[in-house]
Amino acid sequence: MISPSLPKPLLWGGGGLLAAGLALAAVAARGEGEQVVSMTAMKFEFTPETVTLKKGVPVILELTSLDRTHGFTIPELKLRADILPDQTVRVRIVPEKVGRYGFHCDNFCGDGHEDMSGTIVVTE
């Protein structure tokens, strides 16, 4: 579910967005069971590269770029965001389907761009 307070131009998709979510890295409890996950993007890598979530637990993914504009996309879930330098993009999602989902940068950032990827793992 997308929070109404999130910037809508940074997201696209529909029902697929509800099918999975992201967590790990700096995870902090917020509200009733809602977690916050911090991820950073920098030339040719995301940190962390593997993110593990629990099915049904709401997550706010905070994406920050340390150097330039990057993209963040999970094609299978129809999720996409632009990550601008020195700004934080927040995406609220609830993982509803167990599985493994690949994510990657879809904004060309130089030689090595094709290796800028990771995996979301949703568990029971």
Question: What would you say this structure looks like, in words?
Answer:
- With 124 residues, the chain is mostly beta strands.
- The protein has a single domain (8-123), classed as Sandwich (Immunoglobulin-like), CATH 2.60.40.
- It has no helices and ten strands.
- The protein has strands at 26-30, 34-42, 45-47, 50-54, 59-65, 70-74, 79-83, 88-93, 99-104, 117-123.
- The strands form three sheets. Strands 1, 2, 3, 5 and 8 form a five-stranded mixed sheet that branches. A three-stranded mixed sheet has the order 4-10-9, with no helix packed on it.
- Strand 1 and strand 2 form a beta hairpin.
- The radius of gyration is 13 Å and the shape is globular.
- It starts with 25 loop residues before the first strand and ends with a strand.
* Proportion of beta-strand residues: over 45%
Number of helices: 0
N/C terminus separation: 18 Å
Tally of extended strands? 10
Brief summary of the model shown:
Helices cover 0% and strands 47% of the residues. It has strands spanning 26-30, 34-42, 45-47, 50-54, 59-65, 70-74, 79-83, 88-93, 99-104, 117-123. It is globular.
Lay out the secondary structure:
Layout: E1 26-30, E2 34-42, E3 45-47, E4 50-54, E5 59-65, E6 70-74, E7 79-83, E8 88-93, E9 99-104, E10 117-123
Parallel strand pairs: 2-5, 4-10
Antiparallel strand pairs: 1-2, 2-3, 5-8, 6-7, 9-10
Features:
124 residues, Immunoglobulin-like, globular, five-stranded mixed beta sheet, mainly beta
